[in-house]
Amino acid sequence: MSWFFLVLAGLFEVVWASFMKQSAGFTRLFPSLITVVTMLASFGLLALAMRTLPLGTAYSIWTGIGAIGAFLVGILFFGESLTVTRFLAALLIVAGLVLMKFSSTD
Question: CB-based contacts of 63: which residues, under 8 Å, 6+ apart?
């Protein structure tokens, strides 16, 4: 269950980061509320995952899911550019996540 909690926490991180951008510096109510609620959910699920997963593994996977997810949301929904350099950078993050998962004993 810890890995399930961790992946779900990472997905909530993508949601809160996306809505934080839409909140315009917390000046728009609805996106701000979604940001806060999903942020709390993300932190709560991360805490549950950390009950059994090592700190370094859990935190790096959580932030990696958030980084790649935010990268994709930025491209798909906010019109951010997809350059070769940005793609390679994202690929390196994914490679790091895979290595971190395989290095974990849990």
Answer: 13
